[in-house]
UniProtKB/TrEMBL annotation:
The keyword Acyltransferase does not apply. It comes from the Bacteria. The keyword Transmembrane helix applies. The chain crosses the membrane at residues 12-33, 53-71, 83-105, 132-158. This is DUF4149 domain-containing protein. InterPro entries: Cyt_c_oxase-like_su1_sf. It comes from Pedobacter sp. KACC 23697. Keywords: Membrane, Transmembrane, Transmembrane helix.
Length: 165
């Protein structure tokens, strides 16, 4: 067994981890070194463990890095191809979970939450429209991410099958 390919893959993996940590640090700053990240949304705190943030960033970044890295080999290497498929399936599941959780980020949904102090009707309608637009944009972006992931996985399968015959 050659040491060089194993070392190269270890370096690629370590690079993906480093990029994930740097990305998370640039977004969340020093709060990433605390046990959890608190997101204050209206009158509710969402507490997210730092491991979940880092794993999410790692999955997204690693999928795209490995896809474009293996593109030049026509996805003929078995372990790397399997890693791309594994990360792709996890990314699709993660995006599906995000789409299911998006409605909870709308505090004006009238699902038992009260806005204090009470706002007049006009600003509340404007805020509802603004929140709806933001949630629509985010949900469409996540849907586009899912579609792009599926297309990329299909291209991996096609090129691998084409190279087999």
């Amino acid at each position: 067994m050659k040491i060089k390919p194993i070392l190269q893959e270890t370096l690629w993996f370590t690079g993906c981890v480093a990029i994930s940590v740097i990305t998370a640090l640039s977004i969340f700053g020093k709060t990433l070194f605390i046990n959890s990240v608190d997101v204050n949304l209206h009158d509710t705190y969402f507490v997210i463990k730092k491991q979940h943030l880092l794993i999410s960033f790692f999955i997204i970044i690693s999928f795209f890095v490995y896809y474009f890295k293996e593109f030049k080999y026509s996805f003929s290497r078995k372990i790397q191809r399997s890693f791309i498929f594994f990360l792709g399936f996890i990314l699709i599941l993660f995006a599906s979970l995000v789409v299911q959780l998006l409605p909870f980020f709308n505090p004006y949904q009238h699902n038992g939450w009260k806005v204090y102090p009470p706002l007049s009707l006009r600003p509340e309608l404007e805020q509802i429209k603004q929140n709806f637009i933001i949630l629509t944009i985010v949900s469409k972006a996540v849907l586009i991410l899912q579609i792009a992931t599926v297309i990329m996985m299909l291209s991996v399968a096609y090129k691998w099958g084409k190279s087999k015959s």
